Amino acid sequence: MNLTSYKKLSDDEIIKIICESNNSLVFGVLYDRYSQIIYNKCLGFTKEKDDAKDLTQEIFIKLFFKLKEYQSQSKFKAWLYVFVYNTCINYVNRDKHHNQLKSKAPIYELENFQEEEVSDSSVFELKVEALDKLLMQISPEDKTILLLKYQDELSINELSKLYGVGESAIKMRIKRAKEKLVKLKNLNE
Known about the structure:
Number of domains: 2
Structural class: mainly alpha
CATH superfamily of the largest domain: RNA polymerase sigma factor, region 2, helix turn helix motif
CATH class of the largest domain: Mainly Alpha
Shape: globular
CATH architecture of the largest domain: Orthogonal Bundle
CATH topology of the largest domain: Rna Polymerase Sigma Factor, Chain: A
Low-confidence stretches: 101-116
Oligomer: single chain
Strand content: under 5%
Distance between the termini: 59 Å
């Protein structure tokens, strides 16, 4: 089979071939499909093009060896996004001092705030630039769950499977992350 033929295969079919043969050329098909998306997600965390490129490369190197852990009970794209976000969170935590020096906004842990009901529309009302700044101020874990839900459009059920927790726990995490965003928005006004 030539490389063009592999491009027509589904992600699951390509992963099966990679896992059986360790064929790095076939892995290139996954790289071509997802490298730009992953780079953009990394850039959202690092805010530096060079760091995002390095992190993207790190993700693909790790991914090549971790593909055997993927189980097709969830969509590959969803599994990949969680893998990417987890790697980005590790990057942020690993390089916290480095990132704090480069970051214009500190990360706020809003533990002691009064909970209020926050609708999805409250989050959607934030302008893109303002939302981007606010997302940089919450914890990477909160940022990740919001991005998975609203940017990557994963369902509560998919998130539940990926995180290995119940749907009510996912709903609570999303609710708290939204509340933190709205609280920060109100503080910044």
